[in-house]
Structure prediction request, 675 residues.
Amino acid sequence: MTIPFRLTAASLLALSVPFAAHAQDDEEPTEIPTEIVVTGEGLEPALSTIVYSTTTIDREAIVSTGSGRLEDVLSNVAGFQQFRRSDSRSSNPTAQGVTLRALGGNATSRALVLLDGVPIADPFFGYIPLSAISPDTLSSIRVTRGGGSGPFGAGALAGTIELESAGPGTIGTLSASVLGNDREETEASAVLSQNLGAGFAVVSGRWDRGQGFFTTPEDQRVPASARAAFDSWQLGVRAVAPLNSDIELQARVSAFSDDRTLRFEGADSNHQGQDASLRVVGRGEWEFDALAYVQARNFNNIIISSTRFVPVLDQRDTPSTGLGAKFELRPPVAEGHDLRVGADYRRADGELQEDAFSAFTGALRETRRAGGVNSNLGLFVEDDWSIGPLVLTGGLRADYTEIKDGFFRARDAGNAIVSEIIAPDRSDWAVSWRMGGSIVATRGIDVRAAAYTGTRLPTLNELYRPFVVFPVVTEANASLENERLQGFEVGLDFSVSRDVFVSLTAFDNRVKNAIANVTLEPNLRQRQNLPAIDAQGIEAGLAASFGSLSIDASLAYTDATIDGEGASLALDGNRPPQTPKISASATLAWEPAEGVRLAGTLRHVGAQFEDDQESDVLPAATTLNLFAQARVTDGISVIARAENLFDETIITRNSGGAIDLGVPRTLWLGVRLDL
Prediction:
């Protein structure tokens, strides 16, 4: 448990002479002054984190990657994946769903991503706005693989990724960097932090822009082919202040905008957002964590015909709003128990507005609108019980989910309705649980086991929004049911020595009603509930340090298959789309002197299938990224980075032989200022 205050030197002196104080009978009792300490963090992680497969990434690893991007940091955890292999400069934003444990299959996140306790997934699409989060603003990342039933547990089918912001003690007064690469692209970021009385404030900003690279292979390019140009910015302000010695107030506001061009001239997209949150954390005898947040997001996108190279679809507006709140209470109970009770709420509403045009005449064919409202109310209780070397944990969660006001409407150029769906309102209760234990079996060896269930509500995007990756059309499905997870895992944690730690986990997860893009015809797909996706596998991790040298490595091997029946019988036994069997990452870092860090990350992602038919393969790819930082004077360092140093061909999309490529070899050079 975090100590909410610390004794000052005067306090220690007073305690050292108690008899002198008692000798003055006519004097008032001496009060022990306290110094208020704010952390800007939530409550201490529950003991249950040691029961599940958990990985923590520290700040040094966060700010020293080859690309300087959040997805690069997270990819050091084997088993982490986005829907596609592209990063957040060269992919469509709506493809940035993240998952763990090979439970992918579509572009919506099956992992719950939190920033200082607040879910950050887009309210309409469910993707994670990776470009809106600068790694320089973070102090640590904790990744817990496996289902969760605690606060904001709905949606944590594959696991939870918790991002923690840094304060002045980590950042210093100013941390800023400017870099350029061999394509004349630039990256600039700055984080300014300042203690204000007993609290502090942090102001951050980042701007990335560049002409990008050709995602289309040279032998498939046409005059209309374009580089994956990008131009994105992010601004944020975070303030933390004490309300008293035990309670602190945390507030955040942020805004971002991200423009991208994909494949063809005019195939432009933009996603933007404005977020705000308020959090009150109490660290007294009755600990509590209360927060509320609001998100305002929008997305627009132009689809270009891959045969005539003219606009055929203008997704001109997709405004959405997310609202949420959580209250968690940790009352003092019997010794050895850590009890958590509370409730959380999330609501998402949004509406698609798009125009379809003729590829031959350019005339307006249809105007479409679609949207609805989804909400989730969760009630949870969880208790961790410490009995000597044994930790037991158990949690129960009840979620009331509601899907309402759903519709899809298409009108022709004369405003006549040509297609309309009015989805019936529906609601459901779902009960989830998780339980497990960890025991110190012998010196340096911990044994753990856990079982869990979970639920995820379909997104508005999955329910109501069709989309086109020309020429393939994917239809929405307003009848989609909630996904349900069942899973268990067993693990061993070895402390080989004080400086060498090894972790092994075997798991078996099953997602019933898994939502996937199911092929109906060669150029037609529909989102459907599969009977299930099964994933069994092994995860391994290594963390070791030998003086100035350190290594962090992870590996995940997963055998994932689709359970098909009825209309999906032909898919039975197939591997889910975009899902590799094996992924591995190893980072070797050397810090020979203060202010000097050299790091290299070797990463391998196994072969994947593009679609559910297993007809198009994305070959395995192995890449090497490098990072170097050397201090040249007080506060000023030179930085050099390399992405994909050996220029490996990374195929990110293969639709009937139409290929998209990932980032080629890219070299960066710049300076960093730390004060």
Confidence is low (pLDDT under 50) at residues 1-33. The chain has one domain: 43-674. Residues 43-674 form a domain with the Maltoporin; Chain A fold (CATH 2.40.170.20). DSSP finds six helices and 41 strands in the chain.
